[in-house]
């Protein structure tokens, strides 16, 4: 057993227990008696101290547990503080980047749109606005495309606008003048079209009447007339020749006639036109070539009857046609590549040679008959 020291020493303990100094022998016996009582007190004190020691130890252990928890909490707080410090540093860096980006955007906006307010004044309540949805994204994309198509700001747009306005006014006046001229031309064209329709109908009816008279005279019978392909549009209509020569049962188009009948029908139409509106000259180039002898005689007779209205120049190889001419002009080629003209006036006995040349044994001659 461990004996703890008595506070104040043995004398103090003796005094506390009422031990008085006496005779030495008596003091010894009394001391022995008291010594046993002191040991009991010491044991009691020892127990009390042990109890206090246990309480103190429990308190210390409890305090150590609280200290451990506080240290764990402190470590957690320090960890959170370090993490928050890192996040704060990242946020500071992000804030600096956003600030630089904002400054750059403000400079770009101010350069591109100098009349617009500061971007900070416009976006001051941006965080209070509702979130951007699909509709806003679509509108933003549309506006960006519009800005891209618009291009950079043209500083000379006002001057260009004034020049374009002058150009527009000039072209507007020109357009008005052209429209006025077109209206006048349309009026004139309509007037001309009306006159043309009237004149065409009058001439067509007159020529058709004469054609119906000349055709039977040339063919010694038969019938013929002119027909319009489109009665409703006299300016665009075609003219069809319908003929019925003697011996034919039905009226038929000129395309169905023979070559001689076609030629004589064309001559009848030509003479009908000349009867309506004569011309000073009429040139016929081998018109009588497809005609037989009987029709050549009728053709020659008709030419002679028409000679008092027009002067006919006929190119022919037919001798019967030459007989009605007042003057014959022959073309001969005495030498290859050299043509010479020989004229003969059938109304006189004189013969003119232009130029004079010896007779050719077998010349090739084209004869032209001229009615004066």
Taking strands numbered 1, 2, ... along the chain, how are they ordered across the largest sheet? 4-5-9-6-7-8
> What is the strand content?
5-15%
Helical content class: 55-70%
Shape type = rod-shaped
Total number of helices = 8
Helical/strand content category: alpha+beta
Q: Tell me how many strands there are.
A: 9
Rg for CA atoms? 71 Å
Poorly predicted spans: 1-7, 16-23, 349-367
Question: Summarize this, please?
Answer:
With 372 residues, the chain is α+β, with helices and mostly antiparallel strands. It has helices at residues 9-16, 24-112, 119-122, 134-150, 157-219, 259-276, 293-306, 319-322; strands at residues 223-228, 239-244, 252-253, 281-285, 311-316, 327-335, 338-345, 351-354, 366-370. The radius of gyration is 71 Å and the shape is rod-shaped.
Can you put this structure into words, describing what you see?
With 372 residues, this protein is an alpha+beta fold. Among the domains are: 9-106; 278-372, P-loop containing nucleotide triphosphate hydrolases (Rossmann fold), CATH 3.40.50. It is built from eight helices and nine strands. The chain has helices at residues 9-16, 24-112, 119-122, 134-150, 157-219, 259-276, 293-306, 319-322; strands at 223-228, 239-244, 252-253, 281-285, 311-316, 327-335, 338-345, 351-354, 366-370. Strands 4-5-9-6-7-8 form a six-stranded mixed β-sheet. The protein has a three-stranded antiparallel β-sheet with strand order 1-2-3, with helices on one face. Helix 5 (157-219) packs across helix 6 (259-276) and helix 6 runs parallel beside helix 7. The radius of gyration is 71 Å and the shape is rod-shaped. The termini are far apart.
């Amino acid at each position: 057993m461990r004996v703890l020291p008595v506070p104040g020493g043995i004398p103090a303990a003796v005094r506390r227990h009422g031990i008085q100094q006496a005779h030495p022998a008596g003091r010894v016996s009394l001391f022995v008696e008291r010594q046993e009582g002191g040991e009991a007190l010491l044991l009691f004190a020892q127990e009390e101290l042990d109890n206090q020691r246990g309480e103190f130890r429990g308190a210390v252990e409890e305090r150590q547990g609280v200290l451990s928890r506080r240290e764990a909490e402190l470590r957690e707080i320090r960890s959170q503080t370090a993490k928050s410090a890192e996040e704060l540093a990242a946020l500071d860096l992000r804030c600096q980047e956003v600030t630089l980006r904002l400054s750059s955007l403000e400079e770009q906006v101010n350069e591109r749109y100098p009349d617009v307010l500061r971007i900070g004044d416009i976006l001051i309540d941006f965080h209070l606005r509702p979130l951007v949805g699909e509709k806003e994204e679509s509108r933003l994309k549309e506006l960006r495309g519009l800005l891209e198509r618009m291009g950079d700001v043209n500083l000379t747009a006002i001057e260009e606008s004034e020049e374009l306005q002058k150009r527009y006014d000039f072209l507007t006046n020109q357009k008005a003048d052209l429209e006025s001229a077109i209206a006048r031309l349309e009026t004139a064209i309509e007037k001309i079209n009306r006159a043309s329709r009237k004149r065409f109908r009058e001439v067509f009816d007159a020529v058709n009447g004469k054609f119906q008279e000349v055709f039977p005279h040339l063919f010694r019978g038969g019938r013929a007339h002119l027909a319009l392909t489109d009665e409703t549009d006299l300016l665009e209509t075609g003219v069809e020749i319908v003929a019925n020569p003697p011996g034919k049962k039905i009226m038929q188009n000129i395309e169905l006639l023979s070559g001689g009948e076609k030629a004589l029908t064309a001559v009848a139409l030509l003479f009908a036109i000349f009867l309506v509106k004569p011309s000073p000259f009429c040139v016929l180039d081998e018109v009588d070539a497809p005609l037989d002898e009987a029709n050549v005689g009728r053709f020659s007779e008709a030419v002679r009857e028409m000679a008092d209205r027009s002067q006919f120049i006929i190119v022919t190889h037919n001798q019967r046609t030459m007989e009605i001419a007042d003057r014959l002009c022959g073309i001969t080629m005495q030498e290859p590549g050299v043509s010479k003209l020989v004229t003969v006036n059938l109304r006189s006995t004189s013969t003119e040679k232009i130029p004079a040349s010896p007779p050719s044994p077998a010349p090739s001659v084209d004869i032209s008959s001229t009615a004066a």
